[in-house]
Amino acid sequence: MRALWLSNADRETKLLIEWQLLTATRANEAVRARWDEIDFVRKVWTIPAEKDEGGAYSRCSVKRSSPGLARRNARDKWGS
After folding, report:
1. N vs C: which end of the chain shows fewer Cβ within 10 Å?
2. Along the 80 residues of the chain, how does pLDDT read in single tens digits?
3. All residues at 6 or more sequence positions from 78 whose CB lies less than 8 Å from its CB, including other chains
4. pTM
5. Cβ atoms < 10 Å from Cβ of 55
6. How far apart are CA 80 and CA 62, in angstroms?
7. Are the CB atoms for 20 and 30 separated by under 8 Å?
8. For residues 36, 27, 67 and 60, what is the CA-based torsion angle, rounded to 10 degrees?
């Protein structure tokens, strides 16, 4: 992660890559994640079937630092 954050990539790209690594998802799933799909209390991200490559909805465990990463991105982007 240190190398990622020291790279020349822009901040949004770094956040997206970190989210993808922490959730172990495909790039297209990470890019199309929506806030209403993430349950921060249960620490679960439910990926709808239409977004899943296999055509079935799936649940992804949100790792310890993932909720903080998502909230930090939201706060920076929308002031939430």
Report:
1. C
2. 889 889 999 888 888 888 888 888 888 888 888 888 888 788 888 888 877 666 666 787 776 655 566 665 555 554 44
3. none
4. 0.67
5. 8
6. 20
7. yes
8. 70
